[in-house]
Design brief:
This protein is an alpha/beta fold. Helix content is about 35%, strand content about 20%. The strands form 5 sheets. It has a 7-stranded parallel beta sheet. It has a 4-stranded antiparallel beta sheet with strand order 5-4-1-14. It starts with a strand and ends in a 22-residue tail after the last helix.
């Protein structure tokens, strides 16, 4: 079996919870990169990536679209889709970084391989260690009163873990956490995400003020490059500290471990280049005794299906994962994945296990253009 065609399009998802923002910026729409890989045997795999905001990732979804359609796609025509290690090495040789584009191809390959073998994707990389994963739901950086009202509704749906976006002033951030704790009670796990908003000293001050409200995790309190500062925070506060923006690769994960900059690493397939590379970073964490969890990929059910396949295979996973944000997105073109009582399990169907409306996203042409043709540089938005 050989790869015969690779195509990608952009699809815009809309946030049902409007006014969403973090300390770095805000937006209510997300550009999703859908990738379709066809083989000479008539099998199709579909992948996805969420390239992220340019103010965080430093790149655009349009650039990743061009890379898949005009560089990566043509380069892997004729290769065996099961040779995923060689394929990813090939992509790495063609472009530094660009991990979001590579991850869309990685997911499509895992979907394709699972369908070829009639197996769920997680069976391709270790199988299922955990039958279901506790889901952490996120909340944007709203005012304290509004944030508390919004998360109370989420907890009312059965969720028992929350991540709160903060990063304005000390008083307002502490008030957010206080009001949320009072609204949801003592049994809900709270993570606080600064998204790089503070210096080390300021982060320590704010975290210490939050101490009465039982915060479990503090995410990325300082600038991504300030590993020394983050190590100081990690050593100085009671909650565990999690690295997110500081970790985009295997080498960066090694730096976090070697410097003691964090207690936990957030695994995200779009920024790490796909499931294959994320699993390698997870293995590094396991060898070093570093905790991890699967972090947010805003978008749709296909993305969180990949996330939950990854999460159930992680042998040392003890923390809830951020794998349910498809619930706050409008016009999801995918079906077949639902959260039950605050937990998510991988679909039992082959591949990633969800149904993608290929016509809706713009990948259903019966006679698609060949990889690399100019006809591929088009974008599909929701109706």
């Amino acid at each position: 079996m050989k790869i015969a065609n690779v195509r990608a399009v952009l699809y815009q998802a809309h946030n049902l919870i409007t006014g969403w923002k973090v300390s770095l910026g805000g937006r209510d729409t997300y550009d999703l990169l859908f990738v379709r890989i066809d083989t000479d045997k008539g099998l199709t795999g579909v992948g996805i990536s969420s390239p992220g905001a340019a103010y965080i990732m430093g790149d655009t979804a349009a650039n990743h679209l061009q890379l898949v359609n005009h560089l990566f796609g043509p380069a892997i025509i004729g290769l065996d889709p099961f040779d995923i290690e060689a394929i990813m090495l090939k992509l790495d040789s063609l472009a530094m970084k660009a991990e979001a584009a590579k991850s869309g191809i990685d997911l499509a390959l895992h979907d394709l391989m699972g369908k070829a073998l009639d197996l769920p994707a997680c069976q391709l990389f270790g199988g299922m260690v955990h039958p279901r994963i506790r889901v952490t739901r996120l909340m944007g950086m709203y005012g304290p009163k509004e944030m508390a009202e919004k998360v109370k509704r989420i907890v009312g749906k059965g969720f028992s873990a929350l991540k709160l976006k903060v990063g304005t002033t000390l008083q307002e951030d502490v008030e957010r956490v206080r009001r949320v704790r009072e609204a949801v009670g003592p049994s809900v796990m709270i993570t606080v995400d600064f998204n790089q908003a503070c210096s080390a000293k300021e982060a320590i001050r704010r975290i210490e003020k939050m101490e009465p409200y039982d915060v479990t995790l503090i995410e990325q309190p300082v600038q991504a490059s300030d590993l020394k500062g983050m190590a100081v925070v990690t050593k100085s506060v009671r909650p565990r500290v999690m690295a997110d923006e500081s970790v985009n690769s295997f080498a960066e994960a090694m730096q976090i471990i070697e410097t003691g900059a964090a207690d936990v690493i957030s695994l995200k397939f779009p920024k790490m280049g796909g499931i294959l590379k994320a699993k390698k970073i997870a293995a590094l964490c396991e060898a070093a005794g570093m905790e991890y969890l699967v972090g947010t990929t805003p978008g749709c059910r296909l993305a969180d299906a990949a996330n939950v396949h990854l999460a159930v295979s992680l042998k040392d996973l003890t923390l809830p994962c951020e794998i349910g944000e498809f619930e706050r997105m409008a016009d999801d073109p995918c079906t077949g994945l639902e959260i039950v009582d605050g937990f998510l399990s991988p679909p039992p169907r082959p591949g990633l296990g969800v149904e993608v409306d290929l016509k809706r996203v713009g990948l259903a042409a019966t006679d698609p253009p060949k990889a690399g043709s100019r006809r591929q540089s088009w974008t599909i938005s929701r109706p």
